[in-house]
Amino acid sequence: MSNAVITPAMLDTPLCFDAMREVGSGLGSGGFVVYDTTRSIVDVLGVLLRFLAVESCGQCNACKLGTGAMSEIVQRVQRGEAEQTDLETLLRRSHTVTDQNRCFLPVGAQLIVGSTVEAFVDEFVATVEAGDPTPADLPIPLIDWIDDDTGEVTWHPRVHLRRSDWADADEDPVATRLAALRGEGTGED
Are 143 and 155 a contacting pair, CB within 8 Å? Predict the structure, then answer.
């Protein structure tokens, strides 16, 4: 979650630092999150940005406020409430999120936002123009456990409860969050 998105055209790139740098991405710590075309790229970016916004330590205002603001913009797109100007604002924010950064987290956010919107601009524009909510059903890809024998991955069961102050919510807000993202139960028709 700390480098530019790798598109299908880059899948034959050797997994080494130099080759990944040549295609405009990187290896980071060597972990990858892979989604197929059945997933909304808007939801993928939403999940990754929310994770980065929550994990920001808050020492750099540009990072804490910027990742949070970018996450909120993508959530508007997910709810079907965004306008084209929101995509422009998202990209502008990605350019300032690294101002006076103390760590690499805002750089990762900048790389993810810029490369994802650039690589999938048609999907972002179409999602905004349609004004329809996205599925918004992706788990946050934080690994809790990998079974060495089967290779089965278990996602962290409570990471979605984390708030921007690093505390966890008392109750599981999944149904409430999904309903809010989908615009359900708000009293609006």
Answer: yes
